[in-house]
Every structure is written in C-alpha cells, then in structure tokens.
Design goal:
Helix content is about 70%, strand content about 5%. The protein has about 150 residues and is mainly α. It has a two-stranded antiparallel ribbon. It starts with a helix and ends with a strand.
C-alpha cells in the first residue's frame, strides 16, 4: 500500500506540480527503443511462460534500462541541476546496494535469481560513467557533464 501511494504521489508530482519544468526539446529519447526489446526479451527469457511471470520479467528488464532516457538527456544538454544529479546518484547507489544484497543472500541462503542479478548488473554498469563524473566534478549547484 505504501509503495502504491508513493508511486501515485510521484506520478502526480510529475504531471501536475512540476509539469512546467518539462523540457520537450531536450527530451528526444525514443522509448520504443527500450520497450520493444525489453518486451521481446521478457517473452524469450523468463522462468515460466505465464502472464504474471512475463509481466514480472518485463518489469525487471525495464527497470534495468529505465534510467537511459535521463542519462541521454543529461548527455544531450551537457548539464543537470544539483537535485537531479543527487537523485541519480542515490538511485544508482540503491542498485549497487541491491547487488550487495544478492551477494549476501547467495552466501547465506544459497538464493540466486539470475534474471534479477543480470538486470541489476546491467543497470549498475549504466550508472558507472555517471558515478565517475559525479565524484570528480564535486557537489555543485549545477553540474556540467561531458559523458565519456
């Protein structure tokens, strides 16, 4: 219930309170380039060919690439506000801590979820360039990024 309320609040804030901050000129990423391959992969690589399993797999795969439009926009504009960079940093840190959780669960419980682990590793790799720039540029009020 808390998750659903927070998700609804986030979407509401995006579409109502912060609607004016949307920059349509910089937002040129084509999400179908993410959705179509992720949907196809979720049908091909899953644990059971059932609707719920395919939807769960789709959500895991989509989460691993969902940051790409934001990173693409930062790369295109070459800068980001401090709040955005901090948000992305902590989102990436969350994923990196998830990897640590999987290592711990494997050693303690013998549990290994190949789909979740591979997707998490892929997502963390996408953050690596951002992490490097985040730490080398320091904590400024506005960040200028030239991605490698």
């Amino acid at each position: 219930v808390v998750y659903l309320v927070l998700a609804y609040a986030t979407v509401s804030l995006i579409y109502f309170r912060f609607r004016n901050s949307y920059d349509s000129e910089s937002d040129s990423f084509r999400v179908e380039f993410l959705l179509v391959p992720v949907a196809g992969l979720s049908f091909l690589e899953n644990y059971a060919f059932t609707p719920l399993e395919i939807l769960w797999t789709f959500s895991i795969y989509l989460e691993s690439v969902a940051i790409l439009p934001q990173l693409f926009m930062i790369t295109k504009t070459g800068e980001a506000e401090s709040i955005t960079t901090h948000y992305l940093f902590f989102l990436g840190l969350y994923r990196a801590l998830y990897l640590a959780n999987w290592v711990w669960r494997y050693h303690v419980e013998g549990f290994f979820d190949q789909i979740a682990v591979v997707s998490g590793v892929v997502q963390t790799i996408f953050y690596c360039d951002f992490f490097y720039l985040y730490f080398t540029r320091g904590q400024q009020t506005s960040h200028n990024f030239d991605f490698i």
